[in-house]
């Protein structure tokens, strides 16, 4: 993978930089603006890079009609049997909340942006000077929406859950053709919650290479393990849903992180990135002290001139400084040139 970077708000994003951790509030505000603002504060306290919300109304996602096509399948783990319109009514973030949420996030040093779901959402977000846009997996096939978001000149992040290579290619071409040269692609399993076995993290470098862009992960699995592991596969962006407490419920609570878990993700993802290093093999500068304590051959008994080198008076011990342990058979049977005290490194000039 080639190192690429872009800038979102005041932060650089790319494999050369620590992971850009996006905390998604979604519907975890549970219809309470005060709770929404508390989530913003918790996200900032956890050290995340960005807060993301979703900008839609039930009427911009679907229509108020009931029937099998407009209901979640009965077997769904979280929302089985729910009517789409009613679910989106319950989960949406009221548009009048956007400004106070964005203002609080910016006060706390967070990059604040959103996922728009129709042109009216982009109109609102442009008025709020959103610094970027996120296209949700289900909207990846909405090429007019992608073109409109890209035409703002803002960075564009697109989730690829459920998408074929052809669909991703069409979305990337739409974004680039409308003015976004470097859309960021997130590997995603669009299941809520998603099983760990379906994460398929090996897609991340494939997305980056196939589309010559920055790649990352939108993760709906439990915990932080999958997200941290994604860094080793080149994820420059990590998105996770966040709530104050799963026990308090909410439409997305089941697959959301609590604040302490988000803080752990931020720390461990940065550690994982720092640990990547380079493909160079050999002693690192940090290992210099350790090199002093490698084994080598030493005189382990006082000897005098003419004494034979034996396994009793020469052994492989720590520290370094003497001949390599592998040279023991080359020195056995030779004689010492002079007297040497116990603790003398065995070198070629003394035998």
From TrEMBL:
EC id: 2.5.1.56
Keyword set, alphabetical order: Transferase
Pfam family, one: NeuB
PANTHER family noted in UniProt: N-ACETYLNEURAMINATE SYNTHASE, PSEUDAMINIC ACID SYNTHASE
N-terminal signal peptide: none
PROSITE patterns per UniProt: AFP_LIKE
Domain AFP-like span(s) in chain numbering: 296-351
A GO term for molecular function: N-acylneuraminate-9-phosphate synthase activity
The protein, known as: N-acetylneuraminate synthase
Gene Ontology terms describing biological process: carbohydrate biosynthetic process
EC class of the enzyme, as a word: transferase
């Amino acid at each position: 993978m080639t190192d690429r970077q872009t800038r979102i708000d005041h932060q650089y994003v790319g494999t050369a930089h620590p992971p850009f951790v996006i905390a998604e509030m979604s519907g975890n505000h549970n219809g309470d603006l005060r709770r929404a603002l508390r989530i913003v504060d918790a996200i900032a306290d956890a050290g995340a890079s960005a807060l993301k919300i979703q900008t839609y109304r039930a009427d911009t996602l679907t229509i108020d009609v009931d029937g099998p096509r407009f209901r979640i399948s009965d077997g769904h783990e979280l929302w089985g049997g729910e009517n789409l319109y009613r679910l989106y009514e319950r989960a949406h973030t009221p548009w009048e909340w956007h400004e106070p949420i964005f203002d609080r996030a910016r006060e706390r040093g967070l990059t604040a942006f959103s996922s728009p779901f129709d042109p009216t959402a982009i109109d609102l977000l442009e008025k709020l000077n959103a610094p970027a846009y996120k296209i949700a997996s289900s909207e990846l096939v909405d090429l007019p929406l992608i073109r409109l978001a890209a035409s703002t000149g803002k960075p564009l992040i697109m989730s690829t859950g459920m998408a074929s290579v052809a669909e991703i290619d069409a979305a990337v071409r739409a974004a680039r053709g409308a003015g976004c040269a470097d859309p960021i692609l997130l590997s995603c399993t669009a299941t809520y919650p998603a099983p760990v076995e379906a994460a398929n993290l090996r897609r991340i470098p494939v997305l980056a290479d196939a589309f010559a862009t920055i790649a990352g992960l939108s993760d709906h699995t439990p915990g932080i393990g999958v997200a941290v592991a994604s860094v080793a596969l080149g994820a420059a962006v990590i998105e996770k849903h966040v709530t104050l407490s799963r026990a308090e419920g909410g439409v997305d609570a089941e697959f959301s992180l609590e604040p302490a878990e988000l803080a752990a993700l931020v720390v461990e993802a940065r550690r994982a990135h720092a640990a990547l290093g380079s493909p160079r093999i050999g002693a690192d500068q940090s290992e210099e002290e350790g090199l002093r304590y490698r084994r080598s051959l030493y005189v382990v008994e006082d000897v005098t001139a003419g004494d034979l080198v034996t396994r009793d008076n020469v052994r492989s011990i720590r520290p370094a400084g003497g001949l390599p342990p592998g040279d023991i058979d080359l020195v056995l049977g030779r004689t010492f040139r002079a007297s040497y005290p116990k603790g003398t490194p065995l070198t070629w000039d003394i035998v």
